[in-house]
Amino acid sequence: MVEDTPPQGLNALLYFLNYVTDLSTEPVLPDHLMQQIESAYKPEMVRMMCEALKWSVEHPEFDFEEQIPLSYKNEEIYLYLEKVDRLFESKGICCKFFRQKDG
After folding, report:
1. d(Cα 67, Cα 89) in Å, to the nearest integer?
2. Cβ neighbours of residue 30 under 8 Å, at least 6 residues apart?
3. How confident is the model over 5-26, as pLDDT tens digits?
4. At what angle do helices 43-57 and 31-40 cross, to 10 degrees?
5. Distance between CA 38 and CA 41 in Å, rounded?
6. Alpha-carbon span 21 to 60, nearest angstrom
7. How many CB atoms lie within 10 A of CB 14?
8. pLDDT tens, 29-42?
9. What's the predicted TM-score (pTM) here?
10. What Å distances lie between residue 78 and 20, 97, 103, CA to CA?
């Protein structure tokens, strides 16, 4: 059974789908958005996104479509989350923000 309550950062990650024009594009998120995540978001929020990514890739059967209104099917959302997870990993975002303290 899948946990009904995903981590808080999931909705922010799903909201970013509004900036995605093509799920086959690599990287899946535009550079300006990645820069904004790294520089403008509070470390606690980025940590919540990282926790949500980890949770999401471990729960492919979760009904992501029910989280926020999107024009994507569940399989597409899961593919997007996998790509964002790899993108965050390649840029070291989660490692960086888990070492930082809020402030």
Report:
1. 24
2. 19
3. 889 999 999 999 988 989 999 9
4. 120
5. 6
6. 22
7. 23
8. 999 999 999 999 99
9. 0.89
10. 14, 23, 32
Alpha carbon distance, N-terminus to C-terminus of the chain: 38
Q: Are 70 and 17 contacting, i.e. CB atoms less than 8 angstroms apart? A: yes
Q: What is the mean pLDDT of residues 45-68?
A: 95
The answer to whether 101 touches 43, Cβ cutoff 8 Å, is yes
Instruction: Note whether 67 and 91 are within 8 A (CB).
Output: no
